Structure formats: C-alpha cells, structure tokens
Amino acid sequence: MTAPASRADVAAVIDHTLLTPEATADQVADLVAEAAELGCWSVCVSPSLLPADLPAGLHLATVVGFPSGAHAAEVKAAEAARAVAAGAEEVDMVVNLGLVKAGDFAAVAEEIAEVKRACGTALLKVIIESAALDDAEIVACCRAAEDAGADYVKTSTGFHPAGGASAHAVRLMADTVGGRLGVKASGGIRDAAAAREMLAAGATRLGLSSSRAVLEGLD
Q1: Are 216 and 194 spatial neighbours (Cβ–Cβ below 8 Å)?
Q2: Cis before residue 67, ω within 30 degrees of 0?
Q3: Rounded to whole angstroms, how far apart are CA atoms 197 and 167?
Q4: How does pLDDT run across 179-190, given as a tens digit for each residue?
C-alpha cells in the first residue's frame, strides 16, 4: 500500500486520542480544538467523558472493555450502547485475550457480534493487542472480527506491557482482512516516520496521542 503523501492526507485518518485515566472534561475540550485545527478524522476519549461538543466534520470515538478486555460480553455491549446513546459514532472494543489464548475463537466472534449489535449504526473497531499475540492468533482474531461483522481491526490499546503497533502486525492484519475491514494502527506511534511505516504496511486509520508531533514531522 502507498502511504498518504501529504500532511492533510495523514491528518484525515487520525483518531486524535486521550485515554489517560486522569483525563478531564477541560482536557477533552482542548483535544477537540486541537483535532479540529489539525484536520483529524476524530477524537477518541473514554466513555465517562461523553458526550462531547464537536465542530462539524469531526467525529467522536470511544472505547469499551478498556484497557484489559477482561469484561463480560454483556458489560461491553451495555457500555457500547450507552456510548452510542451519548453520541459516539465509533466504538473501539478490546477483545477478550483470555479467550484468544485459549483458542476459543467462536466465543471471541460471539462477543464481538454482541457488541456490534449494541453499536447499531456506529462503526466497531476490534482491538486485538497484537503485540501480545503470535501470528496465528493475530490471523484468527482478524477472521473472528470479520465473521462477527466488525468494521475495523486495531492493533493495540497502548496500555499493554507487551507493546503497541508494529509494521509486521499491521501488514499481517491487512493481508488477512484483504480490504474488507479497515486496519487501525495504535500504540507507540509518536513520529512521522512511524506513522508512514504503519500506513505503508496497510493501516487505514491511526490512533495517536502525539498527532501534532507526527504531523509537524511531515512539513
């Protein structure tokens, strides 16, 4: 895949993210203003900080089952439904890594499908924590997400000790979903070179908390 060449192209695929536990409503307002200034696609914030006032053209994303994924499926679904009711247009859910490691991908798909139903028309991204998985598990997670009707697969929460996004994982995910789902690279992408590497590997969306630094590196 050819990476977007211009700063505006890259900005248009960024979810400008603030997911630190201590984030405040005032910080969300600052995030929104910065995302609008930079031309980002969306802001991604914790569900407890919804709703949020956004200017036209900027989208609202949130997370559920975050950051561990070790929540009951019905809890994730309820959290998603509440978030959508509060204005979220996109929901990033964390997969149940225990089910992944047990090889129970039917249960993984069932959980994703339950959250997808709760999302209604909102877009669903499935965070698989790729750094904690081997290649076979990454492929199986992506297939489960596709079978369950998800819209994107996403590398990482950015909070797992195993690490964040890698070009290898993004490429494997993109090859597995074959353009039928989007691929979001997130976690540890802090400069323009890393962003370009992820886009070249097949990412169609970037989750960044360092959006300004990344975009300034493209000037």
Answers
A1: no
A2: yes
A3: 6
A4: 999 999 999 999
- Does the pLDDT of residue 205 top 80, yes or no? yes
pLDDT in tens, 93-132: 999 999 999 999 999 999 999 999 999 999 999 999 999 9
pLDDT value at residue 219 = 74
Catalytic: 76? no
Catalytic residue among 92, 116, 125, 151: 92
> Running DSSP on this structure, what letter comes out for residue 132?
G
Delineate the domains of the chain, giving CATH numbers in brackets: 7-216 (3.20.20.70)
How big is the chain, counted in residues? 219
* Residue 92 annotated in active site: yes
Please provide the DSSP assignment of 7-38 as one string: HHHHHTTEEEEE--TT--HHHHHHHHHHHHHH
Rounded Cα gap, residues 91 and 72, in angstroms: 17
In the annotation, is 219 catalytic?
no
Q: How many helices, marked H, and strands, marked E, lie in the chain? A: 9, 8
With 50 as the cut, is the pLDDT of residue 1 above it?
A: no
Which is catalytic among the residues 76, 116, 125, 154?
154
Distance CA 66, CA 64 (A): 5
Share of the chain above pLDDT 90, in %: 97
Encoded tokens for 195 = 């962003």
